[in-house]
Amino acid sequence: MSITEYESFLLDGIKAVQDWQAHWPAFSEDETTQIDFQQFKAIFKTFTKRLQENYPYFHPLYAGQMLKPPHPVAVLGYLTAMLINPNNHALDSSEATSKMEKECIEAFGKLFGFQTPLGHLTGGGTTANLEALWVAKQLHPQQKIAFSDQAHYTHQRMCDLMGIETVKIASTPDGTMDLSNLEVHLQADNIGTVVATLGTTALGALDPLNDLVALKNQYGFRIHVDTAYGGFYSVLAKTDTAFSQYQAIAHCDSVVLDPHKQGLQPYGCGCVIFSDPGVGKCYKHDSPYTYFTSSELHLGEISLECSRSGAAAAALWLTLQCFPLEVNHGFGPILQKTRQAALTFAQHLQESPTFALFLPPQLDIVTYFPQAASTQAISDEAERIFKSAMASQNHPLYLALLKVNAEKFKALHPQIEVNSAEVNIFRSCLLKPEHAAAVPQILASLHHHAAQSVSLAGSH
Ligand SMILES: *Cc1c(COP(=O)(O)O)cnc(C)c1O
Asked: What does the pLDDT read at residue 452?
């Protein structure tokens, strides 16, 4: 669809809500909330101008952090439902969008292989993980929670918040959980829950979930899977062995997915799902304001948060109607493109005399660095290219830097001299399908700036 066609649906959405509103007696807007046209025109102009102070996340030459605008369909869903502004806390406050949310959870539950999923959307991955860890604490109050040193930083923070003791598991040089180190801790520490990450935030690395499930059967602990970034790749798990770890989610206890990362949604849309609906008992509460008037499940009864955006659920529901979680239709082809972008980009970097691949990508996050003799020289060169590329008029390219521990770096690249504690390398999240076609342009720009910064450095 063209942008004009999307805009026409936006007007249709506004009209549909107005038609719905027309079922009730007319009233006029209070004067206290009226604003003057001319005055607003000026304010809005300032506002739209200020919004230009952003990097172009929408563009394929933005190959940095995990950022992109939502799909127009999600925007349509969000804006239209937001005119009603349902609150998915209770059915009474969001009958239509609560149903949509439950259907989305059903779809995700099926994707992950959960027979009777219980879950809901959240403001984001952090709150979703908080909730899974909170349930873990309710079920095993005396036991510790373990996660690797590559797990998202908020796991430690949330455990601190809840007074849960944690165990940090070492990672192997490829960024995945070291299961032999985990086993040492399983024997020595009182571990009740292990957090596995499928798609670490820094490297997009996949913890060995199949083997972890085998350990779970042996030692008896809960597994929480944090797949906030990479969870949508489950769609490809049955047809592409690169993603076979995702099939093991079916044997885990809880999972977190962020539709606002790979799922084409605006912020904030995270999601937590439990395989055992019995965990609902952890949430018993007595809100004095409760307006739970039906006997059906209100999402607020199984959520740590109270008010939640019904518009976020509407946006996700509408998106999943257009882009189902299927291999050959909807999300499958999108993820095949982003994956292809990462593989092609990685292959070219490997063959380049100027750059080198830090690690082969397991998802669509590519980590690489400019070739140089020492870790400090690599960092200096990476920072120079980073700034030069971003400031360029003719060859703009937006990258992101990632700090890697120098010893971990050396384990993968032993020929490079270590003369700093950390190395700054590049990390490109190729999460837009348009990245696949842009790989040659990204590479050309990288080489252009690499050559330029060498000559600049030489002139000093
Ligand atoms: C992004 C991310 C989080 C945090 O999610 P937010 O939506 O940013 O709160 C947690 N875990 C992983 C693996 C992530 O990639």
From this structure: 84
